[in-house]
Amino acid sequence: MPFDSSLNDIKKDFLGIATRYRVANGRETCRHYLDSAASTLEMKCARQIADELLRHYANTHSQAHFSARIVNGAYDWAHQQVLNFVRPGDLRRHIACLAGAGSTALLNRLARMLTARRPERDIVLVSLMEHHANDLPHRKHARGVVHIPLTGEAPALGAIDLTALERLLEQYRDRVNYIAISAASNVTGIVNPVHGIAALAHAHDAWVVVDASQFIAHAPLALSDNGTVERELDAVAFSGHKLYAPGSPGVMVVRQILLEGQEPDELGGGMVDDVSLSNYQITGYFPDREEAGTPNIPGAVQLGAVLNVLQRIGMGSIHAAEQRLLRRLLTGLLAIPGVRIYGDPDLDRTPRLGVVSFNLAGLEHGLVAAMLNDYHNVAVRNGCFCAHPYVRELLKPELWELDLDPDADDADALIKPWQGMVRASLGLYSTDADIDALLNGVHDLLANPAYYRAQYQGDGAGNFCHRSFTVSAKSLFDPEAMLDQALASLSVSTDVL
């Protein structure tokens, strides 16, 4: 059925976009949420579907009563939305599995299973730009991990260096089990040519595992970009909390053949056909055999609803709208003296999604993030974003200028206040006003650095607290006090009855 609402209508349909806070100068304003790379806001229409399902809530794996049948159907529908979204060429080749609280659990599972499947292939190639979730699991389970270099030079590093990748595949011929890469970096938003990498991997009988957590909400991603098996991704993982469905499970789409003939990584209820005191028989039905235990049914259905909405709008339209905002953000930051952008900022040469990490000359990233929040109500993130090796590589030139060695054994303690960046990241709900607020805040801070530095106390670990303006999280949201109010309201309602 066609979608009648416009992209602009959906942009307004998110919980939290009207949240207001009082800032240090006494004004109360709407927050400008530019932290979507960490977690996105919640799409309200999708949440409504999950809430409606709760009226019928029951467990899966039964057809005995009305509610169980409803829930089974809704849970199957969520799996189908995942497959529809990544458009496998042959539905029989791939399965969708929902598990965990994000992509991390599923990437760990893939690392264990793929390593056990071909133990004679002892090398895994991992890109330098990976989030820890798509780096550390492979280090733990593979006998050897080799990191793939990137194009360009710091701080303007680009995507994966395909020539270097080809050399590594030749160097470790017949030993590379799989390649683990991000579709887009969570630090810079830079996009990797995942389908071209898949073709290189398959030419050497290697598989490719793609962490699409930072990509999937921002641009179209099909398992194969031209319909051929050669350029098809073997496994893709992503997180619902970065896809407008906080609290939803993680997602894994994987070639079924990679799971067949091998005992599932997790055992429990719902994935067996029979259990006796001496044995158990695992079901041959996918994806049940990969989803032991009671699933996160409401979260899965909410995620399915988000994917359905995004398909109706069209990921091409969503991507185009975001690229306009991204160009405006990059152009604005690049025009300000004293701003350093990380990753190649040329969008025509190096495509990237809606993520920009930056620093301001002479100012610690923690101070910048604190000031933007306290005075301009701009929510950004600072630090290393669970990608320490990549961030250190991007920072090397300026750390050397400070006579700090990022490769030293005691580097972490020495460079902690300077080892990090400020990250602004876009979502479907981001607006020109959000970009303006960030740029105004950066201008303000660079125009008055001494004043703002005097307002803050640093703790030596990269964190900065305002000396006089303090707002406790509990004063804004106290779960126990809110529960007391809810219970009191319930008591009043009962008395009325």
Q: Report helical residue fraction.
A: 25-40%
CATH superfamily of the largest domain: Type I PLP-dependent aspartate aminotransferase-like (Major domain)
What is the residue-averaged pLDDT? 93
- Tell me the major beta sheet: 7 strands, mixed
Structural class: alpha/beta
Please identify, by name, the CATH architecture of the largest domain: 3-Layer(aba) Sandwich
Query: What's the level 1 CATH class of the largest domain?
Result: Alpha Beta
Q: Pick out the low-confidence regions.
A: none
Radius of gyration: 24 Å
Percentage of residues in DSSP E strands: 15-25%
The end-to-end distance, rounded to whole angstroms, is 44 Å
Provide the domain count: 2
What is the CATH third-level topology name of the largest domain?
A: Aspartate Aminotransferase, domain 2
- For the biggest β-sheet, the strand order reads 6-12-11-10-9-7-8
- The helix count comes to 16
Q: How many strands appear in the DSSP assignment?
A: 21
Specify the overall morphology. Answer: globular
